[in-house]
Automatic annotation (TrEMBL):
Keywords: Endonuclease, Hydrolase, Nuclease. It comes from Blastomonas aquatica. The lineage of its organism: Bacteria, Pseudomonadati, Pseudomonadota, Alphaproteobacteria, Sphingomonadales. CDD domains: GIY-YIG_unchar_3. Coiled coil: none annotated. This is Endonuclease. The keyword Calcium does not apply. Residues 1-70 form the GIY-YIG domain.
Length: 88
């Protein structure tokens, strides 16, 4: 999740991405995403195993910001909000 292009970034793990992204977008969850208005889904990766997803999240939280931006821009160079695509 991002506040805007090159803005504040948030990453997390969920077993229900459409619902969790909606919660963040609508301010249903108190905390970081609400405070910093991280409402745009700009990148996601699917995992079959939640433990693999958590391990990836843990690794990515140690990454430099530039690495995260490069990952986003590899597949989403204009930082398009991907949320509308989730329910297609």
């Amino acid at each position: 999740m991002a506040s805007k292009r090159n803005g504040t970034l948030y990453l997390g793990v969920t077993s229900n991405l459409p619902y969790r992204a909606w919660q963040h977008r609508t301010g249903q969850i108190e905390g970081f995403t609400k405070k910093y208005r991280c409402h745009m889904l700009v990148w996601y990766e699917h995992f079959d195993d939640i433990q693999d997803a958590r391990a990836c999240e843990y690794r990515m939280k140690t990454w430099k910001r530039d690495w995260k931006i490069a990952l986003i821009e590899k597949d989403n160079p204009v930082w398009r909000d991907l949320y509308p695509d989730l329910n297609r």
